[in-house]
């Protein structure tokens, strides 16, 4: 059975959503990806949606929405996106913090940089899971 990974931050509208989309694109054979937060947003950050659509051909508006921690199943791995405040808590067997800056309200370059970092980190996480570097 594939491990379940949750990408969490407070608002579940930008970085965690990008991580969910890129995980489904690059790591779906290794793990199931979810994203969630402690506060709902009426929509995903539209700059993030545009950048992911432009660079990865994935339309997050069609496949994803803002979710609370209670809206997702129990997970094996929690990845905190980097909250700079108190990150939400979700029980898991493994947890890590990617410490990413929130690009909200910044230039497209910031969003593109964030997306590329997330892509690298997702691929690295998939590798570590595949090679049993993360004990579950």
TrEMBL record:
Taxonomic superkingdom: Bacteria
Ranges for domain Phosphotyrosine protein phosphatase I: 3-128
Keywords attached to this entry: Arsenical resistance
CDD domains reported in the protein's UniProt record: LMWP_ArsC
Biological-process GO terms, alphabetical: response to arsenic-containing substance
Statement: the UniProt record of this protein carries the keyword Amino-acid biosynthesis: no
Xref: PANTHER family: ARSENATE REDUCTASE
Listed name of the protein: Arsenate reductase
């Amino acid at each position: 059975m594939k491990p379940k990974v949750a990408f969490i931050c407070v608002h579940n509208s930008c970085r965690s959503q990008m991580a969910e989309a890129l995980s489904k694109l690059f790591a779906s054979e290794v793990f199931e990806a979810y994203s969630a937060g402690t506060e709902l947003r009426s929509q995903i950050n539209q700059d993030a949606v545009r950048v992911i659509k432009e660079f990865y051909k994935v339309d997050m508006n069609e496949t994803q929405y803002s979710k609370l921690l209670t809206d997702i199943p129990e997970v094996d791995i929690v990845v905190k996106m980097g909250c700079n405040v108190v990150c939400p808590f979700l029980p898991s067997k493994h947890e890590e913090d990617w410490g990413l800056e929130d690009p909200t309200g910044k230039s497209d370059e910031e969003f593109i940089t964030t997306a590329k970092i997330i892509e690298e980190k997702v691929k690295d996480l998939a590798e570590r899971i595949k090679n049993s570097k993360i004990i579950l």
